[in-house]
Amino acid sequence: xxxxxxxxxxxxxxxxxxxxxxxxxxxxxxxxxxxxxxxxxxxxxxxxxxxxxxxxxxxxxxxxxxxxxxxxxxxxxxxxxxxxxxxxxxxxxxxxxxxxxxxxxxxxxxxxxxxxxxxxxxxxxxxxxxxxxxxxxxxxxxxxxxxxxxxxxxxxxxxxxxxxxxxxxxxxxxxxxxxxxxxxxxxxxxxxxxxxx
Length: 197
What we know:
The protein is an all-alpha fold. It has helices spanning 2-18, 26-33, 37-44, 47-71, 76-93, 95-102, 132-147, 154-176, 183-188, 192-195. The chain has a single domain (2-195), classed as Tetracycline Repressor, domain 2 (Orthogonal Bundle), CATH 1.10.357. Helix content is 68%, strand content 0%.
């Protein structure tokens, strides 16, 4: 069923790219995925369950990109800049990621799934999604974990956490109002000496 689930999520994502979520029909999503409508309902319980899974997939994809950015070679500051650049790119390219990070949900998107209770008949309930501040906190915490070396003291960890959160929040502002020449890296570069990474 994992292949059917992924096919359904791909079909739903493609449908959302073409038109607003309220006009997306489940029968069309199932047909585009090459499965029966009953398979869709068995897997997600209905449109609400599919919407939750679609939004969860966007959140997981964004966080996986953060992990990839933190794994690139180079120094700590280059890795943190890569996270900022990924954040800007992901928020600009994916309306669901942008909504997850900012809390601004347009009428084109599925309503933000805040109710953690499972959708009736849903095969695999989705875990609750983080709020925008929680998602920024997750990114900050991932960055702190990746950039902290052995022997990093509590004071240095606090400063590192502040720097990481500042960079993520600066990246979010760049997603809303794209930076000029030099991109997000040019805006972050002056922060480096004060960040003590």
